[in-house]
Amino acid sequence: MARKKVKLAWIANESARKATFKKRRKGLMKKVRELSVLCDVKACGVVYAPNEAQAVEVWQRFKSIPEMEKTKKMMNQESFLRHLIAKLQEQLHKQEKENREMETRLFMYRALASGEGREAPLHAAMTIQDVTCLAWLVEVKVKAVQERLDLLLKGRIMPILPRPPKVEQDHVEKEKVAVTASASAAEATAAMRLNIEGEIQAQDCQEGKVNLPCDR
Description:
elongated; SRF-like_MADS-box; coiled coil
């Protein structure tokens, strides 16, 4: 059964008008939510009854905002489409740049692996822009390798700085060496003295000057 066409006119009956308002408001909010989900955009709807003071206050505050500030972030369909096209073009340029760099990197790796380009010229299908991009990529890679090599060489031949001298420990060690040398000299002197006295006693014993038992 076909629905009866609704006549768009002010509803004179207050009860019917309020019921229609509640029903249509729920349907409108549902449409707003569907629009937000389907198009992945932030959407809102402002619907209020004449007797809702808070909504009226918000609307009056909005109307009191200067026109330039009010329309600062507003856009019609044309400006929205222009903004969307500019954003998509930016994404397209970014993707094209990434694809070009990937193709150049792949060609460079293939040339290094097969030896192409040493005796034979570059690929005939490459344009001036491709060759320029390849030269830039090779320069970047060479610079990165050189920086890495400099870093490794710097870490390998870096001189080892000597430790600062320990004054107190060196002083104690010098004193120990001096005491040891003095003790060794005293021991050597005492040994020499004993040897001399032994020789004198042996000589006197042989001459009979001292009555000591020489042979035991």
